Amino acid sequence: MNQLNLSVSYDTFQRELTHICDVIIQCVDESGIYVPPNMKNGVFTQFAMDNIDWREQTPDGSTFHATSSYESTPAEQQPPIAAQTCKT
Fold first, then answer.
1. Contact 33, 11 (CB under 8 A)
2. In terms of C-beta density within 10 A (0-12 exposed, 13-18 middle, 19 or more buried), how is residue 81 classed?
3. Would you say 43 and 53 are in contact if contact means Cβ atoms under 8 Å apart?
4. pLDDT of 15-31, one tens digit each?
């Protein structure tokens, strides 16, 4: 896909993902908690969470357990992605 200019390279993706993780770790180190930058005090926000238990009883015992979460804030109240930085 990258060779067709339809996606970023794997290295670029890894660099961006590492940067995002570094920012989250820095926020936790500085304030003890990570709050996503689009969450604002007094702004209506919806959350949904669900656990995923897939193929629980298979003959070979292979299973998959995970938790999925979603947070939504009205688009007109979100800062641009470039403006999202650590809250202190």
1. no
2. exposed
3. no
4. 999 999 998 899 899 98
